[in-house]
Design brief:
Elements lengths: L1 H6 L4 E4 L8 E5 L5 E6 H10 L4 H9 L58 H4 L1 H8 L4 E4 L3 H6 L17 E5 L1 H12 L7 H18 L5 H14 L14
Antiparallel strand pairs: 1-2, 2-3, 3-5, 4-5
Helix pairs in contact: 8-9
């Protein structure tokens, strides 16, 4: 059973955030922070409730649960959700050059071959910054449902641990989820079954093992999913982690 494999991972620890939610799990990072994972549907409900429940936001802080890689990746509190970017407003750090601060990257950029701007769009435009700060965290399928469905191992309305609502998901900040993780995985949504079978484990090992050391626990979950689905490559069983 898929979830039994995940629960037995050495970096995985069971946790119950409150009486209103079922069991979730902490995945421990090398810096003693954690990712929070659980079934997709339950995680989506938890993410939505974070907006209104301080006790759950305190739970994230107490357990050192990260929802992204930046210090600004935190759940919104006491602010209304901004529906769109809106009118452009020059940011406080509009002209600041952040190049020198990127010498030791926390994670490799999404588009590594493009010349990096001196600052991020959220530094450049205050309206963009407030937009993402106001967005509800999101439940991210650690291995994309679109990929698993195309392979015939996951169903939209099934009740198995490999199906849409039960698949393993991690809690992520909306900007980090959409503008980083999903941006990297989006091209695979158009791949046919043959290409997915060959390339999918490489895509996820590259994302979770080579872009940041803090993603490594998410590779352990991905590998459990691949093992369970019978699509794992033998060469990835002992994939070397970053030194």
């Amino acid at each position: 059973m898929l979830w039994k494999k995940i629960i037995n991972l050495p970096e995985c620890k069971s946790i119950k955030p409150s009486k209103d939610f079922s069991e979730f799990f902490l995945l421990k990072n090398l810096d003693d922070t954690h990712w929070l994972i659980g079934q997709y549907k339950a995680m989506a409900e938890f993410a939505t409730t974070l907006r209104s429940e301080k006790i759950l936001r305190d739970f994230l802080s107490a357990k050192r649960i990260r929802i992204g890689l930046r210090a600004t990746d935190i759940p919104p509190a006491d602010i209304d959700r901004q529906k769109r970017y809106g009118v452009t407003v020059r940011g406080e750090n509009y002209s600041e050059n952040f190049t020198a601060k990127r010498l030791n990257l926390t994670a490799r950029p999404v588009r590594e071959l493009k010349v990096m701007p001196i600052n991020r769009i959220t530094d450049n435009s205050a309206n963009v910054k407030t937009f993402w700060e106001s967005q509800t965290p999101q439940s991210h399928h650690i291995v994309e449902f679109n990929n698993l469905e195309a392979l015939g191992v996951s169903r939209k309305n099934g009740n198995d641990g490999m199906d849409y609502f039960q698949l393993p998901a991690v809690l992520l900040a909306a900007e980090f989820h959409q503008r980083y993780v999903s941006a990297i995985l989006k091209p695979t949504h158009n791949w046919e079954k043959t290409k997915l079978t060959v390339e999918m484990p490489n895509v996820y090992s590259s994302l979770y093992l080579e872009r940041s050391k803090l993603f490594e626990p998410l590779w352990s979950v991905s590998k459990a999913i691949f093992d369970h689905a019978g699509i794992e490559k033998p060469s990835l069983i002992n994939h070397p982690k970053n030194p």
